[in-house]
Amino acid sequence: MTWMVTGGAGYIGAHVVRALISAGLDTVIVDDLSSGFEKFVPEGVPLVRASILDKAALVDAMKTHRVTGVIHVAGFKYAGVSVNRPLHTYAQNVTGTLALLEAMAECDVEQIVFSSSAAVFGTPDVDQVTEATAKAPLSPYGESKLIGEWLLRDQEVATGLRHASLRYFNVVGSGDAAVYDTSPHNLFPLVFEALVAGKTPRINGNDYPTPDGTNVRDYVHVADIAAAHVAAAQRLEAHDSIEPAYNLGSGDGLSVAEIMTAVASVTGIPFTPEIADRRAGDPPRIVANGDLAARDLDWKMRHTAEEMVRSAWEARLRAEEGSAE
């Protein structure tokens, strides 16, 4: 049985591939390398360089590699940018998912784990987001992920597709120093690049109604996220009961100030963050309850804040050493 990982050459997808290998599951990667890297692909894992918009290529890959399940990680993942590029976002995340589901139906592939997002919730006015919390996405990105979940739901009704969507907030850290977060929009890379450049990292607002005045968010380690994807795949493969969606949340979250403290401790670079104005629309706290995922997917927070930062920093240093060679 072979699992296809779309976007398997990207930051999260490459960790999912490694988790599948560790679990003894065969895998094939489909990635157009628009944001992924061939160097992230483990030796011996087939890489099909193709877009998820290319249904014919997906069908060929599924037949060639005898795919029995899909973990769908590929997509355009920049919520802020999606506001200015809505058509591109919908093409990649909605039309791409539609093409993937059509290819699966043609090849009789009947199980999929979908990498969704907590962006489907928007900015809910609750202390803890649960799976039942109202969906109110605020960006084309969040909307596209919610539509992806609807497509899976409707395909289940039509064909009996077995599926699970995994929602999460801020993915950080590294489970393999050879794989690192390359996003120009995520907190950890932004902070690291500022420090390396001799600049002072910035916090947007410190007057929120939180214990230290800074935003509280779910920061979850990428290796834990990857493990949950594999657990969902194994549950589908075993025909065990499974929920349509799970929140991969910490339950309590970390503040931006706590992250900054951990960064200073791990890097050995002392700094006092600059305090900038609040960003419009930033809620004080968004944290998800992960009880359902803990029950079914062995979900848990296995890393402290410092461990998450350390793994990310070590991968960042390794990447810099590699580029200097």
UniProtKB/TrEMBL annotation:
The keyword Isomerase applies. Pathway: Carbohydrate metabolism; galactose metabolism. Keywords: Carbohydrate metabolism, Isomerase, NAD. Its EC number is 5.1.3.2. InterPro entries: Epimerase_deHydtase (IPR001509), NAD(P)-bd_dom_sf (IPR036291), UDP_G4E (IPR005886). Residues 4-249 form the NAD-dependent epimerase/dehydratase domain. Its cofactor is NAD(+). GO terms for molecular function: UDP-glucose 4-epimerase activity. It holds the Pfam family Epimerase. The keyword Nucleotide-binding does not apply. GO terms for biological process: galactose catabolic process via UDP-galactose, Leloir pathway. It catalyses: UDP-alpha-D-glucose = UDP-alpha-D-galactose. It comes from the Bacteria. Belongs to the NAD(P)-dependent epimerase/dehydratase family. PANTHER family: UDP-ARABINOSE 4-EPIMERASE 1, UDP-GLUCOSE 4-EPIMERASE. NCBIfam families: galE. This is UDP-glucose 4-epimerase. It comes from Salinibacterium amurskyense. The lineage of its organism: Bacteria, Bacillati, Actinomycetota, Actinomycetes, Micrococcales.
